[in-house]
Amino acid sequence: MNRIARVACVAAAALALVSPTPIASASPAADPGTRQVAHAAQTYKVVASINTSEAAAGEDTVRITGKVKPRAAGQKVVLQQRPEGSNRWRKSGTAKVTSSGRFVLTDEPSRPGVRFYRVLKPGGDGVKAGTSRELQLDVWGWYSLAIRQVGANSGVLVGAYTQFGAEPYYSSLVQQTAGTPGYVEYTLGRKARSLRGTYALTDDSTTGASGSVTVSVDGTAVVTHPLATGTIVEDYVIDVRNAFRVRFDLVGSATPAGRSAVGDPEVLLLP
């Protein structure tokens, strides 16, 4: 091979070595945001809130409201609850999801104690079930005051049976002797929320008798109920939140003979 031919071959080889190698085009990468949205859509998202943190057993109704995504219009959500200390959830109500994805559930707690609610959206249409966060509710209950540990007292029958207007009261505070004032104290220890009771002269008081009951909280008189034959103050409620001690002063006339009483006093406590 002559010199010119050899030079031509070398140049061709060098050109082959430096020529760019074609690169296969890559598929466009999926947008991370798109992947996240697709994943989230596989499970129902449930947001819920409760209208109060406290309720009285057998008296109050609580409302749990919220929203489901995806909207699942016309489908059901389930209200579940469990008592404090338990891991078992039980069904306590259902509601239909509106066209906007919203729902309203209600419950009437009948037993005192701390409980937790959550809202479950069962799975369907290829979407997995989802639940809301837990919502705490403190359910208070009424307990007889007369059967609690009694404090300083004089001239009062504690836990006694009496009648007002021919109605029985089985665990009451009753002035022992007409004409002789009495008092009784109870320590609440800042654990009660309310105090209620019925105030009257006992049915065995003489016609024309008079008297009164004064309720004091931590040494300050809160209310005085003037009483006469036929006067009955029913289910009177006093706010005793943060009260350490409560005292009842009972007065009844000697002539005509009258005895004041507090029928079935109760305190609202969180067990």
TrEMBL record:
<keyword id="KW-0732">Signal</keyword>
<feature type="signal peptide">
    <location>
        <begin position="1"/>
        <end position="26"/>
    </location>
</feature>
<protein>
    <recommendedName>
        <fullName>NPCBM/NEW2 domain-containing protein</fullName>
    </recommendedName>
</protein>
